């Protein structure tokens, strides 16, 4: 398998994991088990997301992708920032429950849009 394909598989695997780990933490909070913050679940998602981003940047370099000429890629990067911001609010214990619910929905919508852009690669500009 080529280096590019290995990177792509790594990127995709960590992409699915980021959603699964985010959903798991939301679920644990929703059922009143916030103690996951004292378990490895506190750092595993950060490690996964770091690998996801390193693989993404490696794909950009290896595949000569340019976010300034590929609108779907720029869209992914902007949505990623939104996903990170909304995700932080959704998991913050000091934030009120209604705000956290809205933030969780926004985060899930944005990560769904990232998947759509990644798979459909629509021509935006
Ligand atoms: C949470 C964030 C992200 C998720 C969930 C995600 C998800 C995915 C998925 C599922 C694919 C495979 C699409 C397919 O079926 O072909 C993909 C491809 C790709 N992603 Fe991401 N991605 C994310 C962030 C990023 C970022 C930030 C960049 C760039 C800086 C990036 C660059 C790429 C590139 C270049 C490909 C194309 C690989 C190819 O088709 O050969 N991704 N992404």
UniProtKB/TrEMBL annotation:
Superkingdom in the source lineage: Bacteria
Keywords associated with the record: Membrane, Transmembrane, Transmembrane helix
UniProt keyword Transmembrane helix, yes or no: yes
Keyword Nucleotide-binding assigned: no
UniProt cross-references to Pfam families, sorted A to Z: SirB
Spans through the membrane: 6-28, 49-66, 72-91, 98-119
GO CC annotations on file: plasma membrane
PANTHER family: PROTEIN YCHQ
Protein's recorded name: SirB2 family protein
Organism: Marinobacter adhaerens
């Amino acid at each position: 398998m080529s280096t590019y394909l290995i990177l792509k598989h790594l990127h995709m695997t960590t992409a699915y994991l980021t959603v699964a780990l985010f959903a798991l933490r939301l679920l644990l909070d929703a059922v009143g088990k916030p103690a996951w913050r004292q378990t490895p679940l506190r750092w595993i998602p950060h490690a996964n997301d770091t690998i996801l981003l390193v693989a993404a940047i490696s794909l950009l370099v290896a595949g000569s992708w340019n976010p300034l000429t590929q609108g779907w890629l720029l869209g992914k990067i902007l949505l990623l920032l939104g996903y990170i911001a909304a995700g932080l609010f959704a998991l913050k214990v000091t934030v009120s429950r209604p705000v956290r619910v809205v933030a969780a929905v926004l985060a899930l919508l944005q990560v769904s849009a990232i998947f759509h852009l990644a798979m459909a690669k629509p021509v935006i500009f």
